[in-house]
Design a protein that fits this description.
Helix content: 10-25%
Number of strands: 7
Strand content: 25-35%
Distance between the termini: 25 Å
Number of helices: 3
Largest sheet: 5 strands, antiparallel
Strand order of the largest sheet: 4-5-3-6-7
Order of helices and strands: EEEHEEHEHE
Radius of gyration: 13 Å
């Protein structure tokens, strides 16, 4: 079940912190690449998160260029609030990492910023 948190001065529904592992996918384009790179690198240095590659191409279900941050339930609340405060308009997908990709990217997912349509066909 999800809870409603007031993040971003609007009602944002975030997954309950029920899982051991999570991913945050920061989305960007050519114009916002420097901002996204700085955000991801800073998150990796401030928190116990693993910084993935900064993809300047479409990868998996992601509709824009993206960078993945992998983290555990211990960093969940602090990291999400920090990302939201520092994302400067970037959209960020937050989802559980249970090994069930379709469920993780749908049922166990939420957004900071504007939600984007994922290419879920890659999971079928």
């Amino acid at each position: 079940m999800s809870k409603s948190n007031n993040i971003d001065n609007e009602s944002t529904v975030l997954p309950d912190n029920l899982h051991e592992f999570y991913h945050a996918h920061v989305y960007f384009d050519e114009m916002t690449l420097p901002l996204a790179r700085q955000l991801c690198q800073q998150a990796a240095s401030l928190f116990e998160v693993k910084l993935g590659r900064i993809h300047q191409k479409l990868v998996g279900p992601h509709p824009k260029w993206s960078c993945q941050l992998a983290f555990t339930r211990m960093e969940y609340d602090t990291l999400l609030h920090w990302l939201n405060e520092n994302r400067q308009g970037l959209s960020i997908l937050i989802h559980a990492d249970t090994g069930k990709d379709l469920q993780d990217h749908t049922e166990h997912a939420s957004w900071l910023g504007v939600p984007l349509a994922l290419n879920l066909a890659v999971f079928r």
